[in-house]
Amino acid sequence: MIIVPVSAIITLTFICCGRWLFRKLHLLDRPELYGHQRQAIPYGVGIVFFLSFLIGSLLWLETSPQLITLLVGGGILTTTCFIDDRCQIPAWLRLLIQLFCAALIVQSGVHIPAISNPFGDPIVLDGIRWSLELGGFHLNVEPMAATVAILWIVFLVNAMNWLDGAPGIVSGISTISCAVIYLLATMKGLHVIDQSQLANMALILGGSTFVFLFFDFPKPKVLMGDSGAMFLGLMIAVMAIYSGGKLATAFIVLAFPLLDAVWTIVRRIVKGQSPLRGDLQHFHHELLRAGLSERQVNLFYYALSLGFGLSTLYLESLGKLIAIIILFGLMVSIRTILALR
Questions:
Q1: In angstroms, rounded to a whole number, what is the distance separating the alpha carbons of residues 33 and 292?
Q2: For residue range 92-138, what is the model confidence (pLDDT) as tens digits?
Q3: Which residues, at least 6 apart from 339, have a Cβ–Cβ distance to it below 8 Å?
Q4: Residue 293 phi/psi, 5° resolution?
């Protein structure tokens, strides 16, 4: 468990250096655009997550093609988002880069071979395999398994980014997600293969997000920006696959952000808007407009993620489906009540 404090110290060092450097370079947010009555603070400091994970990987993780492509894909995504935090990259280009990073990671062997079915046998995704020759390289591609994995990663990347409309939520929920994934990876009798690599990844990332929460929790001293939120989304998506395709577990831990992401995509399409176009109509925005403080919204998300997340460790597929239905019903009920106010 020394990984957590060391990772936290590394991240704390980066944050302190980043606060000084970002202020010196005037890499600050613009609070007036969102009606905030406060001074500008360092924006885009979430780049420290990638840097801390990179160092942690060198210290505690075994080198493998999967880890190398994860670091390369994560580095490309973080760099792109850091630039976007400064000078607005077009949404379609961001999406293409997200798809490229996800495909790069998936081609290294990170895929979803099957999806649990609460009403019968698992839904097998790797039953079809294509053999391709590209530039002298021989590739074995499982199209269904790869496509589902890519879509899962891109979906989670954007869901976490959309959640970053209120400070503290992403870092707090990410910490809870890492804790649940760690517990899942270390549960005895659950896994056929060794999950120590995954457990260490969760500790490295969890140590980083935990210490960042002290700077991010309202009232924030720094903001992570897209570079932090999207990298965390990427990492949690990949770790859910590493844990044996426990997508339902990750979905329940992140239920409100992910259900809100689905709601947002459908809402924008119905209105004839681009699903990639940002707005201030997410669930956490509605709670803020209803009169909750940023801290209360944070605690609401934390309580749901922690409570339902821990319960998933002991639920079978049908129980997880019921939990998702309950959470969806809860979101609909709250949204309906807020709309009638």
A1: 20
A2: 999 999 999 999 999 888 877 777 767 766 667 766 665 555 555 55
A3: none
A4: -80, 165
